[in-house]
Amino acid sequence: MARLAECYRQIIEIIGEDPSREGLLRTPARAAKALWYATGGYRRSLQQTVGDAVFECQQREMVIVRDIEYHSLCEHHILPFYGHVSVGYLPKGKILGLSKLARIVDLYARRLQVQERLTDEICKAVARVLPTDGVMVSITGEHLCMKMRGVEKQDSATVTVATSGRFADDPALRAEFMASIR
Ligand SMILES: Nc1nc2c(ncn2[C@@H]2O[C@H](COP(=O)(O)OP(=O)(O)OP(=O)(O)O)[C@@H](O)[C@H]2O)c(=O)[nH]1
Ligand SMILES: [Zn+2]
To answer: Is the CB of 143 under 6 A from ligand 1?
Structure first.
């Protein structure tokens, strides 16, 4: 944390500000803490995230948690991107504690990411922590690197999808998932 704060102190200096100015005195420490938090996904495992919250259940119909908000950092510019994740799966004898789906989202969002990989990692993680007949994930994202700099498009949104198991080759299942999250 001290090293990170020192890096931020230097950044403040390099951009032409005075790190000893009263308003900026504690900024390096605050910014370090904020970045540490926003990248906390590197310092937790999937197992720690899910714990023991896998339960027996014979329900086989699709389970969906939709509109889980996330904040991530684009790996190209280290600027935020954010939006909503919807996760669905087909249970096969076991179900996952609902909050754990949201915790899995945070586990992979709080890293340097591209939206496509975030989508894929969430999909694979759900399939890893419980038996399923398939997992589907859809993410919407607004990227500050496309809004506040660069191409400066304020209204574009990115949608990404990942599937596994029966979702990969059953258009009706995909359609059911997409209809439920709309
Ligand atoms: N596929 C994908 N691209 C992303 C994501 N986040 C940012 N990018 C893109 O990463 C690309 C990096 O392109 P470069 O040409 O190397 O960088 P740049 O000169 O800053 O590009 P501009 O943003 O076009 O100014 C840009 O097109 C960004 O829009 C993401 O989650 N997924
Ligand atoms: Zn970017």
So the answer is: yes
User: What stretches of the chain adopt beta strand conformation (E)?
Assistant: 54-56, 63-74, 80-91, 94-96, 112-113, 132-143, 158-165
40: which 2 tokens? 């906390």
Question: Mind telling me the catalytic residues?
Answer: 74-77, 115, 143, 145
Q: What is the pTM of this model?
A: 0.95
Instruction: List the pLDDT tens digit at each of the 182 positions of the chain.
Output: 999 999 999 999 999 999 999 999 999 999 999 999 999 999 999 999 999 999 999 989 999 999 999 999 999 999 999 999 999 999 999 999 999 999 999 999 999 999 999 999 999 999 999 999 999 999 999 999 999 999 999 999 999 999 999 999 999 999 999 999 98
Q: Which ligand is nearest to the CA of 159?
A: 1
Which domains does the chain carry?
Answer: 1-40 (1.10.286.10), 53-181 (3.30.1130.10)
ipTM of the complex: 0.90
Q: Taking ligand 2, which is a single-atom ion, which protein residues have CB atoms under 5 Å away? A: 74, 76-77, 145
